[in-house]
Specification:
There is one protein chain. The chain contains eight helices and six strands; from the N terminus they run βαβββαβαβααααα. It is an alpha/beta fold. α4 runs parallel beside α7. The N and C termini lie far apart (44 Å). The chain has a single domain, classed as Ribonuclease H-like superfamily/Ribonuclease H (Nucleotidyltransferase, domain 5, 2-Layer Sandwich), CATH 3.30.420.10. Strands 1-4-3-2-5-6 form a six-stranded mixed sheet.
Amino acid sequence: MPQRPPDVTPRIVQGDLPDDLLATYLASKEVAIDTETLGLQTLRDRLCLVQLCDRAGNGAIVQITRDRLTPGGSGPCRTPNLKRLLEAADVLKIFHFARFDVAAMSHWLGIRVTPIYCTRTASKLCRTYTDRHGLKDNVLELLDIEMDKQARHTDWSATTLSPEQVRYAISDVTMLHALMDKLQFMLERDGRAELARRCFEAIPVHADLDIAGFNLLFEH
């Protein structure tokens, strides 16, 4: 029988990472990151949450208040601690479908995330026996964990998050380290690790193209 996601109680903060959490994450080799927005159109649907977790299970949910937004790079970044962490060259940021999250944080916060590991991209490169590359499918197969996605379509801009929203929001990042380890083993086994690394490096360019409206640039 599949297991439930790890039980992590996140620290919920508003506006930006506090200094102590910043120090904790900067001391980590990898930090799992996710975002929640008001929809899937980056230029229209504002960024509401940034979720983080390290391998030790230190989880956080940063509620991005309107006064911290700098859409389209209008002015200096108003989340300096998040910016310092997400642009730190010696901390790997693990995402699932990084292209969306990277674009959201670039457009709404003026943050250029680097370096990146995307488990969805890795899945497409090594799980070629399936077309199901969502996080739920990956963790069910590779980690034997069943995710509950019922809270996915809710108002993430709410001042007070419901317990269901908190569980959903933090659950995504609590599994990304273990999932990355499984996928990286498969990539190395199949001789595709270097190709994956080069794909990860290209993600910010794809995010920039999405923001600029060139989401089909590489289509025939």
